[in-house]
Amino acid sequence: MPWYIKTEQFRGPAQDMREHLAAHRRWVRQQRQQGQVMVSGYLVDGHGQPGGGGLLILQADTYGAALALVQQDPMILSGCVDWRLQGWTPVVGDLSLLPQQSLL
């Protein structure tokens, strides 16, 4: 199944988005519990500090299916991020996802 990556950049300070970030984490957990292959996290700067954005990696049958799914993300629905969805084709190496219970 194809891979897709959603990158996002916060439109404001992270502390102003706590409610939306919490809703996003709940949404990702729910998607994973329903069998969706998905990993989410935040981007950090060179000092390990949150850098004002995030990354979501997921599998979907088509770009349209991936787009329909990420458009349900509370971070997008809230309008608090600029985002981009792209297909991703791994070429070298294997992608091993962490066990579901260790994420979020």
Automatic annotation (TrEMBL):
A matching Pfam family: YCII
Domain YCII-related, chain residue ranges per copy: 15-81
Lineage top rank: taxon: Bacteria
Secretion signal, residue range per the UniProt entry: none
InterPro entries xrefs: Dimeric_a/b-barrel, YCII
Gene3D superfamilies: Dimeric alpha+beta barrel
Family of this protein: Belongs to the YciI family.
UniProt protein name: YCII-related domain-containing protein
